[in-house]
Every structure is written in C-alpha cells, then in structure tokens.
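Work Package 3 committed the consortium to producing structural models of liganded targets before the mid-term review. Because experimental data for this complex are still outstanding, the team generated a predictive model from sequence and the ligand definition alone, so that downstream docking and mutagenesis planning could proceed in parallel. The input record is reproduced below exactly as it was submitted to the modelling pipeline, together with the SMILES string for adenosine-5'-triphosphate.
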Amino acid sequence: MIRFEQVGKVYPDGTTAVDGLSFEVAEGELMTLVGPSGCGKTTTMMMVNRLIEPTSGRILVGGEDIAGIDPVKLRRRIGYVIQQVGLFPHRTVLDNTATVPALVGWKRARARERAAELLDLVGLDPGTYGSRYPAQLSGGQRQRVGVARALAADPPVLLMDEPFGAVDPVVRERLQNEFLALQERVRKTVLMVTHDIEEAVRMGDRIAVYGDGRIEQLDTPAAVLGTPATPYVARFVGSDRGLKRLSVTAIEPEDLEEPPVARLEERAAVAADRLRAAGARWAVVLNGTGELHGWVSADALRGAGERGTVGALARRMEAWVPVGAPLKQAFSEMLQHDAGWVAVLDGARFLGVLTPAKLHEALRRSVDADAQGVGREEVDFDSVADA
Ligand SMILES: Nc1ncnc2c1ncn2[C@@H]1O[C@H](COP(=O)(O)OP(=O)(O)OP(=O)(O)O)[C@@H](O)[C@H]1O
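The resulting structure, written out as tokens with the ligand in place, is given here.
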C-alpha cells in the first residue's frame, strides 16, 4: 500500500535525514517506526503526504508514484494525526471532526453526521462533547478527537506521529488499547512514529527500528525482541527484551499442562482415585456447566471419607486468561492471585493451565521459531532466562 524505493532526504543545509530507505507497508498493516531522536522517523512519515519532498528515490501509495499526485488531493486520502493534535480552537469538536469531509465537498449535514459517528467510535459521546471547544477537553479527549478527525473522510492510509505522546502513561495505555480495537474494525494502513519501544511493540504488526537515517531491522515485534539483527538493535530494545517479549508472545494450546479435572458435584473418593492414577497432587475443579471453579488438593480428597464431595473441599481460584492472550497477561494474573498456575480458557471451555515452567518453555519456543524464520544459528537466551 505504501512503498518506499531507495528513498533519501538531504535537507538544504546538507543534513542527510534518511538514506536508501526501501520497505513496504501492506494494506491494513500497522507499522511502527521507532528510534532515538533525530534518526529520521518524522522525515520518513512526512514524505508520505508530501509535507517533505524526498531528494532521491520514489514513494508509491496504492501503486501510484506520489510525485505525480497533487499534494492537496493526496492529503485527503491520507489521515494525519500528530502529537499536538492541531485542532481549530474556535471550532466545536463536531466541526473539527467534520473538517475533511466538508473540505472534500460533503454536504454539511452528512459531514456532521459522519463526524458524530466517528466521535462515537473513538469513545466520545457526540451529544456531550460535540458542542464543546477543544480547550474544554482533557488532553486524552483532544487526542481522540484528533484520531476521529483523521478517520472522518475514511482515508485508506493513516499517518500518526507520536499520537499518544502528550498524555500521562495511564491515559496513554488506554488510548493505545482503544486505537488497537478501532484498528481491528477499520483496518487502515498505518504508519506510526514513536520513540518508545514499548509502544512500538504493543502497537505494531511490524516494527522498523531506525538507526541513524536508516532502518536497522524491520520485522515483527517478536522477532525484533527475540533476535535483534544487530548489536545496535539489541541495545535499543533493551536488556529486558525477554520481558518485553512476554507481551508479544501468544499462549498456544501446546504450551499448556493438563492436570486432572474434578467436578464440584463429584464424590471426593472418585476424584482421589483419578488423581492417584495420574500421580497428581492437585486437580482443577470445574462446576456443573464446565466453568472454572478452582482447585482441590490430593491430600484434601484423600481425607474426605466416602460421602464427601469435591465441592466441599475445593478452593476458589479465579485466575484465568483466554487462549491467544499474551504470556504477559498470564504472568500478571499469576502474580495478582499469588498463584502457581493460571487456567487457560477457550471461550468458557477449560483448555489447561499455564505454569511458570511452561511459560518459560513457551518463550523459548517462540524465540526458536523466530530464529529459524530468519535463519539465525545462535540465539542469545540470557535475557529470556532473566524473564
Ligand atoms: N528542515 C530541516 N533542515 C535541516 N535538517 C533537518 C530538518 N528537519 C529535520 N532535520 C534533521 O534531520 C534529521 C532527522 O530528523 P527527524 O525529525 O526526521 O527525526 P526524528 O527521528 O523524527 O526525531 P524526533 O524523534 O526527535 O522527532 C535530524 O538530524 C534533524 O536535525
């Protein structure tokens, strides 16, 4: 969708901002550009909507060389979200959001209707916020209006330059999550600049890690964290990349342990036999409809006598995560519940449990898979083991 071919930019004073950039952002892909200050991220992005012209190479959007497209028309096809948001202070939130549809000639009523829809989509009730002015909003709300405005004309491409930079970390995380949920629905082709590796990893389908004016590595978050291509990338992603990797590695059914299962209404002696046969010290307990209730120990079952039920002995344990969730979520649940395992569910169905040992194995598996993918013979497990 966006294709860079050997693109370079030398500013008039002789500064080379970027050099020999070649990459492609696929349709519906969210690519993050990450790197230290001054490495050329913003220059890269602003060349896509021709706010900056490259000095060499060419850029194609939707297969068309943008050098031949009128910049004003081009920008109508490309939504642009920046950190300072740049809302018009004297226009209401609704009118701000309707700016681009109005510019491209939509009737006023239709433009406003569309604006209201978009405000709703970014979590701002148009009835409450539509008639306010930007100064009457919080920083996070202004940022949402910025996203709504960029999406209002339904452009296929979205450029975002530090879009969540100006808000505190809590709001930032919420906006990131909201944007990811939104992106699931609207599937724009997005180029997002950030200097924050955590944000790049959370948001990007792929990450381009910039060195000085060039891309050092362009790959999935898991691959960048698992097998940094150069020592520079390894330093940039940080020595805790094993920990960061927890947030991008999904729990898969093969990672799970399958302890014996007992039912609440079952006789304790029957369950005890099953545990003995399996050589297990505990079992997961499910209720009558197969939902997670908790666990029960082999010792408790053995001491129950003939008439006791599992239900009388079971302990509640509510730590669970959906299959496919990141390992980090499982780890966090374990810590929160002070538990040695967490149940993994597929919808309401119990699949198995993840233990710390299995979690470590799952991390290794994903590092191995990536290492094979990029043909690397040696993988440095140090930071993974630290996790
Ligand atoms: N108009 C300009 N004239 C000369 N040099 C410029 C100009 N704009 C940017 N540069 C230089 O080009 C390089 C890349 O700048 P750019 O703004 O693309 O970096 P960045 O990675 O986005 O940085 P930051 O994270 O700080 O925004 C820097 O060395 C910068 O000083």
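Reviewers should note the following from the model. The chain has 18 helices and 17 strands. These observations will guide the Year 2 experiments.
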